[in-house]
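Appendix B, example 12.
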Amino acid sequence: MCCKCMSRREFMGAGSGLLLAATMAGRMSAFGATPAVWDQDWWNPERPFALAQRPLSVQPVLMYRIPTPRHADSWKSWGAVQTPQAVEEEAGRIAGELDALAKRAGFGLEIRPVMKVDTKEGAALAGASDADVVLLYPAGNGGDLLRACLAGGNGMAFLRHRSGPVYYWYEAMSGRYMRTDGEGVEGDSRPLAMDDVVVDDTDELLWRFSARQALKNFRATRVLALGGARGKYAEEAPEVARQKLGLDIVEVGYDVLEPRIQAALADKGRMALAERWTDKYLAISGTKLATERPFVVNSFILYGLFKEMMLEHGAPVFTINSCMGTIMPMAQTTACLTLGLMNDEGLTAFCESDFVIIPAGVLMQHIARKPVFLHNSTFPHKGIVTCAHCTSPRRMDGARYEPALITTHYESEFGAAPKVDMPVGQELSFISPEYATGRWVGARGEVVDNPFLEICRSQQDVRIHGNWRRLIPEARDSHWMMAYGNHLDEIGYAAKRLGIVWDNVSDETA
């Protein structure tokens, strides 16, 4: 696997702690410290989107050989890094390229000093590195050295053809050292997956680093499941999420929440703060109110309570079961708008407690570094799929608030839910898990319309890029996950490292 699994202590201290500290704007100093009074800055639409993530550490390793000339004999292999001067020049080139890459990454990327390796002892030190990624630059020959450098199982290899001095391993890299998709059994000594190898292109390195960093932050994520965990048409999904994907799911009953709701609704201070937050929210450009204002105020009460519970449990991800019934009479609103508010600021919050889709959503958010939208899917026709739900975030690009009509939840005609309009032409990425089988389908598309049909409130007609007809046999009345932009390469790379079968329909023409 590419990243070492986090221990619970590491996760609590470095993962959710950073995220909650960022989104609470430093107001809370420790987990479990539930505030007696909510700070007025808990919700602030002017605060930048902040998805806190731990950086990815990379250990570059230059593997080389300096041969000794022999008269009238073959004494050197392929490759242009075969003198002490060439080694020093190449180490400097590697450091410069990676420094430039880190500066434009857009995520935390810690590049360590280049290790220069030409012995078994040096290779063993590289293979034992505690870095998240050992990035091998195999300039010189030696399969034994290559395997030792990559012994930690977290390696990648960068080969040079024309980006600098040509490498021996530009010729020698083969199936003896690389696993293809679907290969690899226990005891397999091949140290690399096929897509762990990059030739010349540092942009190819960058998106792989992005995927690895997302995986680092995905592993051992704690998810607070209010009302319990389930899976749409796959009741085994929560257990698969726990056992195969490593999510830490904490289930909390409504018996814990209900008295808190009653106390908050009776608390004049909290109600006054929710009123002020409502004023700020409705003043956001492009916001129109088409439901009763108290539903919005009560949505902010839920917002405060949900964040309290996330703090108490050290969980950066939240989901709610029975959100189309149980919560409504308790809170005198729906959770729809509340979940959107949480996603807009950098938390991760989903309806329906569906652990078929939640793992995909957590990973996608870490890769896109923007809010993601859990939505229903429809039957594909003429390349069009409609994506609809009542819980869409508005800050889908991580910056601006899209126009939104704040109306009722569709099925109940109750509460507060945003109808968010996305820009026509906006590129989108999708994940559609095949229930809990361990296979995810990916697709790209673009928004062609924001209709107002008698379906869930936020709704987009999307034209699918690639072989859209392959989505027809994939129609299963299931949830999909959406993000702005094209992230399918990163998602596929990361998914395969989780043992997920990745099937990208947009890689094919119709």
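The longest strand covers residues 439-449. Residues 1-33 have pLDDT under 50 and may be disordered.
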